[in-house]
């Protein structure tokens, strides 16, 4: 069953993600439009996968299957270089999360059946799920 997000759930999730990801380095960022998922690979072994298909909505945390050296050989996905997460924020009365990363930001929209992810650089959309 799909998760239903509201402003309170989104704000609580942002606070939890800020604790988990704040000041961590994102080594890779991948958008997979066919499967409707976003994958963030962080320093160490953490991988966060957001299933944004209308039947899902789940955020999963797991250990990466590849060592960091092997991951770097595959590329960084949408990132030109590794970036540090400076904050994860929820916007008041909205179902939207912003992951502030140096120098980019990622916005995850959690509106009912319209889930999406955007990669922004200085206010310009560089990629969309």
Question: What's the gist of this structure?
Answer:
With 129 residues, the protein is an alpha+beta fold.
Name its key features.
129 residues, alpha+beta, ibrinogen binding protein from staphylococcus aureus fold, nine-stranded antiparallel β-sheet, 43% strand
Distinct helical segment count: 2
Strand content: 35-45%
Fraction of helical residues: 10-25%
Mean pLDDT: 87
Structural class: alpha+beta
The poorly predicted ranges are none
Radius of gyration, Cα only, in angstroms? 14 Å
**Number of domain modules:** 1
| Shape designation | globular
Order of helices and strands: HEEEEHEEEEE
Which secondary structure elements does this structure contain, and how are they paired or packed?
Elements lengths: L6 H15 L3 E8 L4 E6 L3 E6 L7 E5 L4 H7 L8 E8 L5 E6 L3 E5 L6 E6 L2 E5 L1
Antiparallel strand pairs: 1-2, 1-5, 2-3, 3-4, 5-6, 6-7, 7-8, 8-9
What can you see in these coordinates?
- The protein contains 2 helices and 9 strands; from the N terminus they run αββββαβββββ.
- It has 129 residues and is α+β, with helices and mostly antiparallel strands.
- It has a 9-stranded antiparallel beta sheet with strand order 4-3-2-1-5-6-7-8-9, covered by helices on one side.
- Strand 1 (25-32) and strand 2 (37-42) form a beta hairpin.
- It is globular, with a radius of gyration of 14 Å.
- The two termini are 21 Å apart.
């Amino acid at each position: 069953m799909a998760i239903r997000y509201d402003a309170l759930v989104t704000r609580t999730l942002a606070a939890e993600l800020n604790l988990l990801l704040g000041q961590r380095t994102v080594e890779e960022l991948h958008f997979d439009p066919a499967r409707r998922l976003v994958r963030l690979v962080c320093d160490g072994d953490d991988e966060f996968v957001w299933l944004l298909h209308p039947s899902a909505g789940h955020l999963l945390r797991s250990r990466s299957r590849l060592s960091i050296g092997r991951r770097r050989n595959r590329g960084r996905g949408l990132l030109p270089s590794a970036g540090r997460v400076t904050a994860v924020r929820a916007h008041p009365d909205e179902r939207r999360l912003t992951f502030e990363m140096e120098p980019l930001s990622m916005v995850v929209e959690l509106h009912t059946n319209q889930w999406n992810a955007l990669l922004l650089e200085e206010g310009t959309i560089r990629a969309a799920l």
